[in-house]
Amino acid sequence: QVLPVESGGGSVQVGESLRLACTAPGATSNGCDIRWYRQAAGKQREWVSTMASEGTPYYSGSVRGRFTVSKDESKDTVYLQMNSLKPEDTAMYYCKQFGSRCSPDWGQGTQVTVSS
Fold this sequence. Notes:
Elements: E1 5-7, E2 10-13, E3 18-23, E4 33-39, E5 46-51, E6 57-59, E7 67-72, E8 77-82, E9 91-98, E10 110-115
Parallel strand pairs: 2-10
Antiparallel strand pairs: 1-3, 3-8, 4-5, 4-9, 5-6, 7-8, 9-10
């Protein structure tokens, strides 16, 4: 199985932006949806956003209007543009593939820390 690789995390101030990337080799050719999740310390992992294989984006209520998901199929990469970041966005962010021909494995994640 090929693990997805998340990148782009960092430490920012409230109101700033970050762009995360999820590279999942084979995701495009296998017709995989890519979902972003996050897990804050001491909390359960929660769904953040989905880039469906046909290109439709979906967002959780807590990030809609601030986060934008996009993809570059030539690179098998999905991006999560995060604007107007808040302290409650602090978490480890993960991506995962979904689909019958898609790897079910989690990547290592990328840490996002937002301080006020």
